Amino acid sequence: MRICFKILFVSLVVFSHVASAQFVSVPYTMSTPGGNVPMYHHVYLPTHYNNGNSNPKFDFEVTLKNDSVVKFKSRILSENKKMYVLLKENKSKRKISPDDTKAIVSSSSDLGRIKGLPADSCWLFKMNKGAINCYSSVPMIDIYGTIAIQEGEKGTIIELTKENLQGITGNDDDKIVKWLKKNKLIKVIEYYNEKNRIKP
What we know:
The protein starts with a strand and ends in a 5-residue tail after the last helix. It has helices spanning 162-169, 174-181, 185-195; strands at 4-5, 19-32, 35-49, 58-64, 69-74, 77-79, 82-89, 92-96, 101-108, 112-118, 123-128, 132-136, 148-151, 158-159. The chain has one domain (4-160). A hairpin with a 2-residue loop joins strand 2 (19-32) and strand 3 (35-49). Helix 2 packs antiparallel against helix 3 (185-195). With 200 residues, the chain is mainly beta.
């Protein structure tokens, strides 16, 4: 049975910096042959940061629904369980959420350009490319910020869970089985990608 997620959950990457936080229930819809099933996922959502480097500003190039393109600098922010970027023009401020956009690209001197796909509650930024692609809700290259995964380039982007990951990796490898039992999902992804890396 093929299951795809129409709405992916909101999450911010949790770094070593101290931050106040709350747990929120984020809705998403699971599409099944029997119809759409509303679900809720509990996620950790930092509300502010004591160190600006944990949520830095990025240069964004945003393609809006009307095909116009705006370029500006902003952090990824959150409100009412949705993420947004803030466009400041003169004295006005405009919140741009994922459902306002067709595409988003972040850029920085350290990380280069990272493309993001709009979901209902957040953008999904691809952090790595391999047998299993990893997506984060913030444009930072930190695999521990993974909230969604994709098998190759043609697979459906799905939530990172033990069950979804096992559906890609299978259970033929003893190391993968052991790590899945211990919920070491990132270790499984790194191992599986290295094992299936295409050698030049």
